[in-house]
Each structure stands twice: as C-alpha cells, then as structure tokens.
Amino acid sequence: MSEYSSIKDALDETGTYTGLTRGISMEPMLHQGRDNIIVIKNKERLKKYDVPVYLLPSGKYVMHRIIDVKDDHYVILGDNCINKEIVTDDMICGELVGFYKNGKRYIDLKKNKLYKFYARLWVALIPVKPAVVFVVKGFSYVRRHFFTRKDNSSGE
Questions:
Q1: Is the peptide bond before 57 cis (omega within 30 degrees of 0)?
Q2: Residue 46: which of 25, 28, 70, 27 has the closest Cα?
Q3: Could you give the CA distance from residue 147 to residue 140 in angstroms, rounded to a whole number?
Q4: CA distances from 130 to 88, 124, 126, 133 (A)
Q5: In sequence order, what are the residues at sequence separation of 6 or more whose Cβ sits closer than 8 angstroms to the Cβ of residue 52?
C-alpha cells in the first residue's frame, strides 16, 4: 500500500487491497500479522456472512462479519467479539474475498466449502459465543504456555 495513503484510496484507485491483518477481532479465522488479506471494492449490497472492511468516523478501519442485513444497515460482529455493531453502506470500503493463511495456503471465501461451513457455524453460535470465545481463548492459552518449545539457547 506504499503508494496509497489509505485502504480506501487503494480500493478506489485499483479496486483491490492486499495486506497483513492487524488486530484480534477476527480470530480464530485471521491472525494478526500472519494472514494476508485480499479485499475488493464491492459493487453491490453485501449479504449475510460477508466480511466487509469499513471505516469508522474515527478513521479506524475494521473488518467484521455481517450477521444480519437490514434495509438501511448491517448488523456486524467480529468472530472474536461479543458486541454487535451497526454499519451503513456508506461506511463500507470493500469486501474480504480471500486470504493467505500463514502466508501460504489461499482461502477463497466465495468457493471454499470449509470456510462457508465455518462462517455459518460461527454465526449460528452467536447465542453461546461468550462461552465459545472463552473456551477457544483457554485452549489457545494452554497451547501457548504449555505446549510450545522454550528456546534454551542461553546455556541455562
């Protein structure tokens, strides 16, 4: 994005933006600094399960999943969040269409059946999401703190 001053500028000029993710709101699907996203400028109204990139009045870019479509707005929620947001069409800059998981394997959000299952399951779990997020974070904590190798190169 070096030649563009913002994600919105890149989308307006070229119709495409690619870059590394920042933030944890879309975990476990996307991980900060590891997954490279592909965003395109949307040409039509988005649908349930789509993942828009939108611009808040504060100037911050956010990427969360649509969980409900209304006539004049969307109800949006990050996969790792519990607070719903209201987003209007004029706030949306583009739509996530794919990403490279860990910089290697490409996931096409429009064609990948496993991704489509994940998106629908994650939205279906919203009523129990606080408990699910707690369990997922617990497993992640245990894995990081108890199952990762410690580097013992200091000679101790």
A1: no
A2: 70
A3: 10
A4: 26, 13, 8, 5
A5: 42, 46, 63, 64, 66, 74, 76, 87, 92, 93, 94, 95, 96
Backbone φ and ψ of 144, nearest 5° = -65, -40
Enumerate residues 6+ apart whose C-beta is below 8 A from 91.
54, 55, 56
CB 21 within 8 A of CB 30: yes
C-alpha dihedral sign at 60, 73, 92, 112? positive
| pLDDT for the residue numbered 136 | 79
Structure pTM?
Answer: 0.80
Q: Could you write out the three-class secondary structure of the chain? A: CCCCCCHHHHHHHHCEEEEECCCCCCCCCCCCCCCEEEEECCCCCCCCCCCEEEECCCCCEEECEEEEECCCCEEEECCCCCCCEEECHHHEEEEEEEEEECCCEEEECCCCHHHHHHHHHHHHCHHHHHHHHHHHHHHHHHHHHHCCCCCCCCCC
Residue with tokens 């563009």: 4
Which residues of the chain fall short of a pLDDT of 70?
Answer: 1-2, 149-156
For the chain, the residue count is 156
